[in-house]
Amino acid sequence: MQAIQSKIKISSQQPDWTALIQKLGKDFAQVAAQHDLEGSFVSENYQQLKKHRFFSAMVPQELGGGGISHSEMCHLIRQMAHFCSSTALAFSMHQHLVAATVWKYKQKGEGAALLERVAKDQLVLISTGARDWLESNGEMKKVDGGYLFSGKKYFASQSAEGDIAVTSAPYLDPYNNWKVLHFGVPMKTQGVSVLDDWNVMGMRATGSQTIAFEQVFVPDSAISLVRSRGDFHPVWSVVLTVAMPLIMSAYIGTAEKAVDLAISIGKKYHRNKDHIHYIVGKLHNSLLSAQTQWKAMYSLTNNFDFQPNENTTIDILSLKTNVADATQQVTKEAMEAIGGQSFYRKNNLERLFRDVQAAGFHPLPKWDQYAFTGKRLLAREQ
């Protein structure tokens, strides 16, 4: 049951990405429950995605990629989540870093080299954004030619098998000013290790282990941004605008799948026969609310044709909170539609319910978002 249907136009020179997702997804679905049970990364799914060049699907064609739009990628991630929400979420983390670089390429003519590498080698980019907000964490020590970086980055999706960690750390400069340096670190660099600590409630197959950095050398040439620590920087208006719709796409797809299962099973559930129509009607309304606000999110991105500003940032973060809450409500109502049997793993609703609980932890968590938004609205002149 999908109140919003994707209308993706694929170039005749490119694969039919939607058809590929439907084909690959059948295999993804076969192993989803086992990966969830084991808490193991969806390695075989990633190999298939690499084989079919999904990791560069959004890279412009002139740089060797598929050239699909931001909104098309949102829909592909949504569809992927129907088969395996963990694969979809992990994949979205790579894509949001690609998306930020595509924006830089289209708007400033920067980032071509990284995008070409992603297209050529199907590199997997790891975001450590959950610990890289305004303050960041870790330690940078200046040495000849660069810095020594130490720290731990939690919730690093795909860290189990990713290629480059896109991260940041605070640095006290020679003038006694705190800065945050942004940079990338190849995962094979000496001093980088991945901890075996991803034992969580939901999205258990995303490979979101902690990355530990111990005296890792970061050359001066790797520093892509220097900003004041603790202050909001315009770069976040780019990253959040392209990232949040992609990430929330995984949760929309998860919620849609929960509704599909609830209706399929609910038709045969005799205990709800007197009021199943009301339950499903309400469930549809809840899903439509989630989908509509998600659609508003990727509309703000306007397929990379936007200029970062405070208004868009406020709206994208507010919509993200609303979509997270709405998808959690949808899965809750889906479970209510079929009663106690939803508590059993065998019909997958239990897993989908657990998976969607992670939606609220992506930046910014609800109460942080409320504070961020309220502070800026109150500071405006009337």
Number of domains: 3
What structural category characterises the helix and strand content? Answer: alpha+beta
Oligomer: single chain
* Biggest sheet record: 4 strands, mixed
Set out the fold topology.
Elements lengths: L16 H22 L4 H9 L18 H12 L3 H24 L3 H10 L3 E3 L11 E5 L2 E8 L10 E9 L5 E9 L5 E3 L16 E9 L3 E6 L6 H32 L9 H26 L8 H29 L10 H8 L9 H13 L4
Parallel strand pairs: 1-4
Antiparallel strand pairs: 2-3, 3-7, 4-5, 5-8, 6-7
Give an account of the 3D structure.
This protein has 382 residues and is an alpha+beta fold. It has helices at residues 17-38, 43-51, 70-81, 85-108, 112-121, 235-266, 276-301, 310-338, 349-356, 366-378, and strands spanning 125-127, 139-143, 146-153, 164-172, 178-186, 192-194, 211-219, 223-228. The protein folds into three domains: 17-124, Butyryl-Coa Dehydrogenase, subunit A, domain 1 (Orthogonal Bundle), CATH 1.10.540.10; 129-228, Butyryl-CoA Dehydrogenase, subunit A, domain 2 (Beta Barrel); 235-378, Butyryl-CoA Dehydrogenase, subunit A, domain 3 (Up-down Bundle). It is 48% helix and 14% strand. A four-stranded mixed sheet has the order 1-4-5-8. The protein has a four-stranded antiparallel sheet with strand order 2-3-7-6, with no helix packed on it. Helix 4 packs antiparallel against helix 6, helix 6 (235-266) packs parallel to helix 8 (310-338) and helix 8 runs antiparallel to helix 10 (366-378). The chain starts with 16 loop residues before the first helix and ends with a helix.
